[in-house]
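Appendix B. Raw example, untouched.
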Amino acid sequence: MTTAEAAGRRGPLTGVRVVELAGIGPGPFAAMLLADLGADVVRVDRPGGAGLGIDAAHDITNRNKRSVVVDLKSPHGPARVLDLAARADVLIEGYRPGVAERLGVGPVACHARNPRLVYGRMTGWGQDGPLAPRAGHDIAYIALTGTLGMIGEPDTPPAVPANLLGDYAGGSLYLVVGVLAALHHARATGTGQVVDAAIVDGAAHLSAMIHGMLAAGAWQDRRGTNLLDGGCPYYGAYETADGRYMAVGALEQRFYDEFTGLLGLDDERAGARTDHTRWGELREAVAARFKSRTQQEWTAVFEGSDACVAPVLSLGEAPHHPHLAARGTFTEHAGLTQPAPAPRFSATPTAVRTAPARPGDGAAAVARDWDLPALLEDGNDGKDEAGEVVV
């Protein structure tokens, strides 16, 4: 896709203005999703950059955004953010409770300037409760909600799912859902509100179906013993002859029958599907069969079938899988291979339009487009002696 083509694919949130107070983890990802959907996202970076130290040119979560640098501890800093909030539809912040208020950019101050503003707050523990003021990271949030304890083998420590389950699934996605719902309400009524998106709330909400199964007696409250947690021998991952893995999800009878047929499992063990006392025996048989061939060989065996079996690929391999390549699930922009925007829209298609915004990259354009010339008053055309944009 050419730059011109990408520029013409703005997405369904075209015209929505978002202010993102820079942070790490779920806040930037949520803002990236809004930007992917077409929103005009202005990231307010702090002097010195974010905490993780990743090269800004490779921080994909800052794609499709523009950036200004504001020192919120300077005399004019809060006023600059409030000027942006006055012209925005949405503001997102990820500070600990009370910090935005102490900096002068909390919900009360912002709503005094813009009553229609949707003020999105992203935290791990939430805005209230005993742990609200405490530090934390993804792994602690999902630990307390019971979701971490569901993942892994029964006699080993829980498996850590990177920061996908807490930060991004329980955090970013719930923040975006809340922001869009509140934006719909604000446009209908003229009244903004605060969205309190806590990772503990979102991660707990994700387990709703499992809690229903637990109440019905269809789920044991310990990992590695259930249908969807690796306890089931036909829903899990198996090592192949070359040390790679195949993922199996043959839950329904007709998919299971196709799976066992292609795997070459004998009829005697195939009957162990519904007999939990024989699951161990069945797992050993399945594992032995997978160990007899390489991942590539098994991939060829199951290709084109409804056995619900797939090779376990690495991050580097995934973009080259024929299906993902055909759909354009991954894309390349500015030399970076990255996931393409999702989901997809028939009337308002999305695209990666710009490379990750470096701190201060876009101050002059934001000052013009948002009618905020004051953004450039404190430097020489918005740049300091090192060439960095400052406000």
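End of appendix B.
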